[in-house]
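User: Predict the full complex structure for these chains.
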Amino acid sequence: MKINSAHELEEATGQVPRIEGRPTFRMDGNDVPFDEGQSVLAAALAAGHFIPFLCYHPEFAPHGSCKVCSVRVNGRTHASCTQPAREGDVVESNVDDLKELRKGIVQFLFVEGNHFCPSCEASGSCTLQAVAYDVGMTNAHFNPLFPDRPVDASHPEVLLDFNRCILCELCVRASALVDQKNVFALSGRGITKHLVVNSETGKLGDTDLSVDDKAMNVCPVGAILRKRRGFAVPIGQRRYDQHPISEVATNNIAGPVPTKPTE
Amino acid sequence: MGGSIPFNHAVLMPLNSNGENGSENQAARAGAHEREFDLLEITTRHGRSSSHLLPILHEVMALLGCVPPAVITQLAHELGVPRGQVEGVVGFYAFFSAEPRGHFRVLFSDNITDEMAGSVELRERMLEAFRLLPGEVSRDGLVSIGTTSCTGLCDQGPALLVNDRAIPRLTPARIGAITSLIRGDVPVERWPGNLFTIHSHIEKRDLLLSSELEPGSAIDAALARGAEGTIQEISDSGLRGRGGAGFSTGAKWAACRAAPGSVHYVVCNADEGEPGTFKDRELLTHYADAVIEGMTVAGFAIGATKSVLYLRAEYGFLVEPLKATLAERRSAGLLGAGVRGSFDFDVELVLGAGAYVCGEESALLESLEGKRGIPRNRPPYPVTHGFKQEPTLVNNVETLLAAAYVARDGAAFLRGVGTPTSPGTKIISVSGDVARPGIYEYPFGFTLKSVLEDAGAQSPMAVQVGGPSGTLLSASEFGRRVAFEDVPCAGALIVFDGSRDMLRVVENFARFFAHESCGFCTPCRVGTTLNAQMMQRIVAGTGSRRDLKDLDKVSQLMKRASHCGLGTTAAKPILDALLKFRPAFEQRLRSLDVLPTFDLDEALAPAREVTARDDAGAHFAEEER
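Assistant: Here is the predicted structure of the two-chain assembly.
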């Protein structure tokens, strides 16, 4: 019997292939190596295989709330950011039904908030927008909920636009863990869940948030913006303007990645 | 010291009249609520521990009727946590509120069984009496009237909560009496006691409900067998978790015992929030001693000295009797230091605060830690990383009751009864269109038909087994059996006769899940609301074919991608009904594929209200109708 690939070797011998001595799982026909304790998502991205995500950030513990990174592991759907990679697991990601599922979740996020890309300062650097392109979303499909969310412009340097918040909690986590300021938190539940600011007035201006804070710069959408810095990076030169997120997030492009205007 | 802050309700509640003699009321109200409010005393009594946030907030709510922003700031300061964390907890639980509500907070239970028994009409009657809109606070701050999720009184509905105290068996006469008591500003503590009496309807007893447990007998038997021997008996009995999931209780106990940790905990899950379920209410009313004995045996078996009985706040009427039972057991040497002279074990009673999701064990643990009740990422599971990340055994009330008897009598207690894969009995709460609502106990494997006959159901058309998160069965399926291997049932059986509109039933369930979604994950947070909106449109006769397709699409997405059991099951009633009652949906649709979702006439409603006009000229005539 002629063995052509690692996978066939596995089938023939019952052994899971190793890559550079590291264990692997199999995703969409590729053997993906991982380190002990790594998630399916982190391992896949490191190996150059993109899985769309929103609430995940490599510098923070995975959160698992947006569910955009859902994959099928041994037949069951899991968020790949919280799913530990295990040797020999069979992972499906780039398959039709999961692509449709992810598109639905992204559409949910679009109808939940008030997202108008053409007038948004984050357009081009926005992870939600980039992921929407990646999943092939051409419209929001469901009826928009049009929530009433006033903006908070009380801070001298920062504009907080709740309309664009996707509740990924990255600012909450960054402010607590990196800045150690706890400027942000969540309140409410269900569809009324919302970002709150850690001051008695509820105003950002009454907090000690500063423009250098991690919380300020980790927002994947246009919810936390630096004032008076509009269009510092022209449209067309922004992070996802020249390369889709699938290339940016897996470091599959040569040269530096254009930064977000707030950075 | 800064712990004491003067607090005047009159500042929070803009004064105005509700009745004819509003100004006198105002003066009385302002005086009644002006008080020195000593938050430091409360937090000190709770050890200034943030994990006691829920009991602290219950006390604040009882004193002030809300948790105002200044109190949130002060609490955060005294507990040493970020202000946003306290605000987030206040905003999460239905029993807490940062905004002032009425001095009398009336909340009608809006389970489908309450609605079937006439709660909507009674609520409207009361709103009309006070000239209020739902959720609105009367201008003198006297009263607010809203709705709350199922209060677990489905055998004696409609029911309501007034200042968190349950009143069942509502009638127009009772509503009239309540209205008068509120108008007279009579403190709830002085209302006639019979208003609050909860009846028991134990209609059929089998293995558990007909057994009696001599206090201490199960503990003695467990001591004689030893911890591992006791776990072996539980495993051999085939006991499976009665809360719904059906996991092997023996395996859970063994895993928890084996898990390394500096301390182990036992938690009794009495957060019975599934609409239509009230069996734990009855078990904790009449069998509390045996349930606590089950907890004690579990503590001995897994090596825990501390435990918590997490009771849903809607069952506040059980607090005093349960405390009395705990005190009795302590004085009998069955709880506390040196139980039967050999191990330490005690039980703390903790109240939830109105969040269905806290019935999920990891969300319950978050709640116990004084946090928002968000289900955790699993693994790790609570048996290894539970309360404060220590090994924790979470069992349902009924499971612990059965465990007490197994500990006393051995595995054979359950093995002779039920089916091979579902040994023992199941206690179910039967409500809806039956002559004798109440709790019924059957050996596993019983048919729905037998329950319907026993409970006196006339021409039943459908049964919701296991509550909204369970299974909707139509008449052709009444021969099916309740057991883990056929139709699993956590405890509710809601019966609908031929006169009921199944779309309204499903719409009620969809509304329930939208209200109870914790909001952590996108599929459940957004999906439950989209589904509730589509169901509302269809019931109102303005749904389109596209809504039917989207109901299916949203439901499938939630089922597959949600974070916890709430989200994965929330759409089941819709999927079941689309399958089994599809003609009911189709008859209700308007024949268009797509309908405008923006209702011009509805958009004019605020203008009509402001101008007090409701004539034809103030409405958009819809030409196509």
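Chain B has 27 helices and 19 strands.
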